[in-house]
Predict the 3D structure of the following.
Amino acid sequence: MSALRLLSSTSRRVPSAFLQHKRGYAEAVGKLNLSLVLPHQAIFTSADVVQVNISAATGDMGILANHVPSIEPLRPGVVEVIDSSNASKKWFVSGGFANVHPGNKLTINVVEAAPLDSFSPEAVRSNLQEALKVAAGNGTEEEKLEARVEADVYEALQHALGSK
């Protein structure tokens, strides 16, 4: 019997116990237990929140209670935390990982994070221009690459401040 026919014949005989566990969209029922941690500080430690929005490498995503377990690399961008009173707190993070665990637990590990409202749009714009100048300049390849990474972060920060 060919492998394809074997596979298709066994797929027709899937036990009904497997068919009952379909996942749909996450529902906003219950709380999400959030830990947002930096190497030197814990911003949230097992805090109950309603929703967390992250800048994942694959795109922006919102995480609610009952979200499917996953590991998401984070790009420079905003982590928004919405609590039970519908209040929103935003941090700009330089990157990291978000781990959605079974049982409504979310752990976000980042290297750097700062409240979004602590940034000056003028300073970000000025630093972005300087980084772009170095990236396009006559420096070494290493200096140009570091400046390009810096410019990418400032561009993400500028975008976040524009949509604040």
Summary: The helical segments are 3-11, 16-19, 121-135, 141-162. Residues 53 and 62 are 4 Å apart (CA to CA).
